[in-house]
Amino acid sequence: MIVGHGGNIFDAARKVGCRPSEIIDLSTNVNPLGPMDGLVSFLLESIDEIAHLPDVEATQAVGHFASRYDLNPDRILAGNGTTQFIYTAPRALQSRKVLILGPTYADYADACRRQGVGFEFQFADAEREFQPDILALDRAVRQFDTVFICNPNNPTGHLIPRDRLEELCGQHSAVRVIVDESYLPFVENGEQQSMIHTGLSNVIVLYSMSKIFRIPGLRSGFVIAPREVIAQFRQFVLPWNVNSLAQAAISYLMSHTEAVDVFLARTRSYIQAQKDKFIELVPKRVGIHLFPSSTGYMLVRLPGSLMASSAKQCLLEQKILIRDCSNFAGLSNRYIRFSLKNDTVDRMVAETLVKLALR
After folding, report:
1. Smallest Cα–Cα separation from 181: which of 169, 194, 170?
2. Is 230 helix (H, G, I), strand (E, B) or coil?
3. Above 60 in pLDDT, residue 177?
4. Torsion of the alpha carbons at 329, 334, 335 and 338, rounded to the nearest 10
5. pLDDT tens by residue, 71-105
6. Structural domains of the chain, with CATH
7. Looking at residue 148, what DSSP letter applies?
8. What is the structure's pLDDT at 8?
9. Which of 91, 118, 261, 291 might form a disulfide with 299, Cβ 3.0–4.6 angstroms?
10. Rounded CA gap, 97 and 94, in Å?
């Protein structure tokens, strides 16, 4: 059973006595502007695809992705979301001792637990705005065979610059480094920060279609790695693991290059504007700490005795669902996370938090 995630609008709706569609879900980190114009209409036109089996290896979808990012298709494997590869990684890589840079996405640790693989966390510190200590990470990495790094990180929103991450990976060629770039498309000039073109034999990159294109229900993602590593992952991938509509969506998005570029630029500009507005709505005097984020979500530390559960409940009464971060290893019951939506909803969140902080 999955318990370490946001997005359970069905449970939230039961608690407040409404339909799931009435819940404004800020607990999942998806694009407030998505899905991209034209995609839903295209999928409706492609609905007949469900009448037959999909391409067993998603060859066309992989080809379009490879063309978009100038990659060799042999270095790419399509999956049922990046979650599939997270849970496959410890087994495919024959990991024995894993390091997880935290606080971060719970599935990395859950994947290790399910495979009986030992793991440890190295936590970034709140006093450093959750900026990882790269020197300490460099010392720690050599004791492990596999490392999980979410970049930019969930839930902190912190981005490790590519040059620093590439240097770290290059200095530890015997250590497999899994870089989850699920939220990188939200970052200004994010393509320049990606690790997919490093050429390093120990780097494995995860790319999610779900977040930036707001299609989590389709379950589509990729792993990009050297050919021999892809071969290791392929051993544990079931046939037909990417459904027909997901493959169609990937091909559509990856072949509409100009439209996607416009969509990404618009998204990044919109998110930055919403962050700037939200920060203005929360006066520093109330003690609410907003951590810097390179993404479309924000991590918040609540002041005084205000607990995350109380803030979540108060907002849920307004049919707004946020993430209580108390079950993130390395955080506590004073932290919440939410994605930005629009002026009206963001203002409701800000005003509610300020009101609670001033009680």
Report:
1. 194
2. helix
3. yes
4. 140
5. 999 999 999 999 999 999 999 999 999 999 999 99
6. 9-30+259-357 (3.90.1150.10), 48-256 (3.40.640.10)
7. E
8. 84
9. 291
10. 10
**Amino acid (one-letter) located at 67:** S
**Burial class, 282, CB count within 10 angstroms (exposed 0-12 / middle 13-18 / buried 19+):** buried
Residue 6 near residue 27, CB atoms below 8 Å: yes
Q: Which candidate, 239, 225, 255, places its Cα nearest to that of 61? A: 255
Candidates 275, 353, 269; CA nearest to 313 is: 353
pLDDT of residue 4: 53
Q: Could you check whether the bond before residue 35 is cis, i.e. omega within 30 degrees of 0?
A: yes
Which residues, listed in sequence order, are joined to residue 77 by a DSSP beta bridge?
223
Residue type, 37: D
Residues 112-121 have a mean pLDDT of: 97
What would the DSSP string read from start to end of 163-219? HHHHHHHHT-TTSEEEEE-TTGGGSTTGGGG-STT---TTEEEEEESHHHHT-GGG-
Q: What is the arithmetic mean of pLDDT over 137-155?
A: 97
Distances (CA, A) of 349 to 24, 91, 211, 271, 345: 11, 41, 21, 16, 6
Residues 6+ apart with CB under 8 A from 261: none
Encode pLDDT of 274-298 as tens digits. Answer: 999 999 999 999 999 999 999 999 9
The C-alpha atoms of residue 117 and residue 143 are separated, in whole angstroms, by 15
> What's the full length of the chain, in residues?
359
Written as one letter, the residue type at 346 is D
- pLDDT band with cut points at 50, 70 and 90 for residue 359: confident
Name the maximum alpha-carbon separation found in the chain.
Answer: 60
Say how far apart CA 65 and CA 43 lie, in whole Å: 18
The burial of 320, by beta-carbon neighbours within 10 Å (0-12 exposed, 13-18 middle, 19 or more buried), is given as buried
Mean pLDDT of 164-174: 97
Inter-CA distances, 301 with 67, 123, 274, Å: 42, 16, 19
